[in-house]
Specification:
heterodimer; A: alpha/beta; Alpha-Beta Plaits; 2 domains; four-stranded antiparallel β-sheet; 13 helices; B: alpha+beta; five-stranded antiparallel β-sheet; 35% strand
Chain lengths: 341, 191
Amino acid sequence: MESSIDEYIKKYADLFVHSPTARAIQLAEKYKVLGYMAQRYLDFLIDEAEEFLRSCSLPLRRAIRCNTLKLDSCERLVRSLELKGFKLEPVKWIKYFYWVNRAPSSPTLGSTFEYLSGQYYIQSPVSGVPVVELNPNPSDTVLDMAAAPGGKTSFIAQLMRNQGLIVAVESSRNRTKSLMSNLSRLGVANTVILRQRVEKLVNVFFERFDRVLLDAPCSGEGLLPLDPARRTKTSPEDLLRFFETQLVLIDAAYKMVRPGGLLVYSTCSIAPEENEFVVEYLLENYDDVKVENVSGSYPVEEGLTEYRKYILSEELRYCIRFYPHKSGTEGFFVCKLRRGN
Amino acid sequence: MQTKKRKLEFNPIDSKLYNIIIAYLKKKFNCDSLDIPIERLFALGNGYLTVCYFSGNLEAAKITLSGLQAQGLHPYCLGVPLLIIKYTKHKNFKKIKIMPLFNLINFLKNCKNKIILNERIVQKLSYGKPIDVDLREINSYIGEHENNKSKLYVIETDTGITIGFSRIFVYKNKVRILPVLDIGWYLREGK
């Protein structure tokens, strides 16, 4: 018998078939991306596609997150780093994050005593947004589904003041090691770390968690400004494989969040196939899921409700998309979903 | 997957082991008292134990652990590792060796074996290298000025950052600080 995921993939199979137009091929050659990628940017960014591609060649500012599990005051951290020659500026739209506007040649951002002692974590502010939207409380039980290297897990622990419980799951052995050493360095002490394929945990954790974060494995199409290799790395077939994995994971996430609980889905990709079409799967298959508006004020665009020939659920517009040409950050997607009681 | 194969179980530590740990740390770091709640300590392993400290919701953690164990699944870690304990056989005695880890520092705030130094001076320690410091530069307590290899000192910068644990060796007007565990482990692991 065909599963609902298989049926869903069949329904949207055309998403992965592309015939780039002359304009797409011209953009692809100019900006050294694959033709099908440029075509998709024309499809959903329309007039802004070239501006987006141009912005992907500009360097991004680095940022840090002050870790209040190790510090009483972020101002103290700012002062001590400024004495070492760093120039920091608070990110206006997310608490605890600072842009690094200037850094000395020595010590580097990743070798100061403050860094080594866990007082801060080098982290893009957009990757903190899913955690802020998850809004974990000290009394919650939280599942972090693809947890390594631990930036989001440790931010969750910070907001929970090291109370409650986080179950951090990672399937890769090497990535689990980096997760463990980062959490140890950052003083995260409310976490159970598991190395396991998360979809295998549904029976153990069925409807168990108050909040679930699924920062899904993805193509990294939002990271073009940081990693030029991403311009040609992902084929449509790869994208389909990510889509399949993401559907399996979001289905598992839904089953593990308790009725009334919150699920935040995020990726470092701007691909609609890895974002709105993944969330749409839940909306089509489960009656008790609703997309909620985000609580913060971010420099973002709404989620897509139309793409190529497909019309998606209207509520997907409450999801948010970060673009380098709009927010000066890497591309990122966040969607906040509430499971009904 | 390895989490199944290792079959390492987390168990609360018993009061006998707890008392051994506390007595060891008090002696090592010269502490009047140590406030580490026994109910928050868990031991992972068998014969070679990692003692972890868990700060979160104990009831939720216990339910989670028993749910996992019922499925034959075992976590890699619970909370943060504080110590490693090794049991070895010495003649007819079972000998216990305790190795403190970095997160233990949070519990040593009231211990006397602490040396505070300028950040510039302690830089070398973060590469795992020993340093020689003029005795006059150390304005903090250094125990009995004894060259007792079994004592450990917490080394802290004057900006309040703990650099690691060291042994010390006093000679003439100098103190040699020999790092046992230092803040640079993270970089040397290649993270």
